[in-house]
UniProtKB/TrEMBL annotation:
GO terms for molecular function: hydrolase activity. It comes from Actinomadura verrucosospora. Residues 17-236 form the AB hydrolase-1 domain. This is 3-oxoadipate enol-lactone hydrolase. Keywords: Hydrolase.
Length: 265
């Protein structure tokens, strides 16, 4: 077993629980750059490249590689935050390794796609990327996905990452992403889960978060008003405040009766 995922580690080793950040399809750890000043101010943050993305090679078992990444970072457990594909991976990791995941925040994620939708989505995505080529495909992705402010601040970097992804690697990653079926895993997730939804997200609207929530014991759903599919880019500070408020409630000292304080959903 030689695969090891690439990760960028920032923030102080303050004793607070660390954070594992997981990016969306076709991008890499750099999609978190706008959020990092807010998330890593008081704790270590591990921004990973998922298999076949960025600096990470292919992996037979991506979940096992994420656990190895936590081991390599000396993190007994972590809050896991993911967007789109990264949110799906975060939820799957919480089901697989409950002792390693303190909480999950998943934004713009989905539980599963029906077979006709899955096949149509893959065919349309692969055909468009192949027809346009990855450079023009990246241009279209940035224009169609990001809000105007994020397009100016983060668009050039995201475009460079996506344009540099080989077509075959992107198509293979899309196939794995669209094949996601979290439904049998959701009842096994015992940690707190925050589901974030961009108000203007047409790819994974609120109904997708509600389908995930239906399989969980005590989820919270919050809407990010000024965001679309990539809420961490469209509204990084609002995104970070929602996430940090969620963590703070979980990390607050126990009440006198021995019960932990939690935010209501």
């Amino acid at each position: 077993m030689t695969t090891r995922l690439f990760a960028e580690v920032t923030g102080p080793d303050s004793g607070l629980p660390p954070v594992l950040l997981l990016h969306s399809l076709g991008l890499d750890h750099t999609m978190w750059r706008s959020c990092l000043p807010f998330l890593a101010a008081d704790r270590r943050v591990i921004a990973a490249d998922l298999p076949d993305h960025g600096g990470s090679p292919s992996a037979e078992d991506g979940g096992a590689e994420l656990i190895r990444l936590l081991d390599d970072a000396g993190a007994a457990d972590a809050h896991v935050v993911g967007v789109s594909l990264g949110g799906n991976e975060a939820l799957a990791l919480a089901a697989r390794a409950p002792d390693r995941v303190r909480s999950v925040t998943a934004a713009g994620s989905f539980a599963s796609l029906d077979e006709p939708e899955r096949a149509a989505k893959l065919v349309a995505t692969a055909r468009r990327a192949s027809t346009l080529g990855m450079s023009r495909f990246a241009d279209a992705y940035v224009t169609e996905t990001l809000a105007p402010r994020a397009r100016r601040s983060d668009g050039p970097r995201l475009r460079e990452v996506l344009a540099g992804t080989p077509l075959e690697a992107y198509t293979a990653a899309a196939r794995r992403c669209f094949a996601t079926d979290l439904r049998p895993l959701l009842p096994r997730i015992g940690c707190p889960v925050l589901l974030l939804v961009g108000r203007h997200d047409t790819r994974t609207p609120r109904s997708c978060a509600e389908r995930i929530a239906a399989g969980l014991a005590n989820p919270q759903i919050e809407e990010i008003p000024a965001a679309g599919h990539l809420a961490n880019l469209d509204a990084p500070q609002i995104f970070a405040v929602s996430v940090r408020t969620f963590w703070s409630a979980l990390e607050r000292p126990a009440a006198p009766d021995g019960r932990a304080h939690h935010r209501s959903g």
